[in-house]
Write a structure and sequence with these properties.
Distance between the termini: 47 Å
CATH architecture of the largest domain: 3-Layer(aba) Sandwich
Radius of gyration: 21 Å
Number of helices: 15
Number of domains: 3
Largest sheet: 6 strands, mixed
CATH topology of the largest domain: Rossmann fold
Structural class: alpha/beta
Bound molecules: iron/sulfur cluster
Amino acid sequence: MGLLSFRGGVHPPHFKEPTERVKIEKANEPKVVTIPLSQHIGAPCKPLVKKGDKVKVGQKIGETDSFVSAPVHSSVSGEVKEVKEKLTPSGEVLCVVIESDGLNELHESVVPKGDIENLSPDEIKNIIKEAGIVGMGGAGFPTHVKLSPPPENKVDTIILNGAECEPYLTADHRLMLENPGDIIYGLKAMMKATGVDKAYIGIEDNKPDAIKIMSEAAKDEQNIEVVGLKTKYPQGAEKQLIYACTRREVPSGGLPMAVGVIVNNVGTAAAIANAIKTGMPLIERICTITGKGVKEPKNLLIKVGTSFKEIIEQCGGYNGKPGKIIMGGPMMGLAQYSDEIPAVKTTSGILIFTPEEARLPKPKPCIKCGKCVEICPAFLQPLYISAYSLNNMHETAEKYNALDCIECGSCSFICPSKRPLLQSIRVSKREILAKKRKTK
Ligand code: SF4
Ligand code: SF4
């Protein structure tokens, strides 16, 4: 099959060279972990432990009764020092702080759960739920919820996202090279859980080695197809990936299940395999630490709760004074104002810019060149939505479908006047959603 793609998009420089050939390395054991009780989209967890409690690796330390949520588990064995609001990548969140005893004693619940062949679809979904697995590509949506579409949405296809279209990040690339078997295993578990018999693994063509290795790993699976995707940003965004692989278009305001598709990240598939094979919940992940602001860029296997500061120190520390720290990639990642924050289930990357790289150009007036409209993968008119947002005309911004913006940042990237397009569109989206909530 030829290279597949979507309409619109941009071509930012990749900047993946510093880490794309660097093998995944296990990070040093953290002495203290700060584990947020909300690392997902949905209801935050309530703590199941208190100060002074002894905990083991894989022990559940937070959960709720809410369906749209995911439990959290301890990534070390040791003693709970406090349960308190702490600064995390997404603001102040209730966290469990645990001092490690360095023994890494496993909790009794961490035992193999059987094999896909012998597990029922509901049992697989329950293992995924109990393991606290969420979308590891960045969104953090609870995976068991994604795998439980309502009966009116008949799902017939699963797509695994191996595009990793964000510049700098190489965690998924290395995972595909180093552990393709678990990705296939996890995908097969998802297919059984949902009764789906067709799956694609989409990988951008700037990773030919990953396409080759994943194709080899899937060669005996009749219903799993590895597809090469054109390298273009945001190829890994759900709607764009679905269009590239199936030519199905998710309607405005709709979810992938509206066109019979579920999309998951390759890292999520590997986490599912681990939860079934070993019983280990989601307590660690692969993270790319890179950018000119760090001395030795690496791909590290980090424990959830380890501080950014400790992780950066394991990469030789800062290269001079850091200008900007971003969790995730430069296009959709979240800027951080401190390195005293914990890595979470969705920390796919820690990007450190030098002060020169971090300096924002001064925005100039819009010259109506139309480039932002041309490249918007959601077919929006970013210049107008942004202008309405800047004038507090959020209702008009809504009429221009501001809520369909996938926040990919392509418009800001392409704009020759360096207008703060995404930034202002985000403001409108926030205002529109707040108003909708109030009306409800
Ligand atoms: S308007 Fe939204 S979806 Fe369109 S390019 Fe800008 S950030 Fe991406
Ligand atoms: S790309 Fe920038 S300058 Fe061109 S139309 Fe859009 S906002 Fe205006």
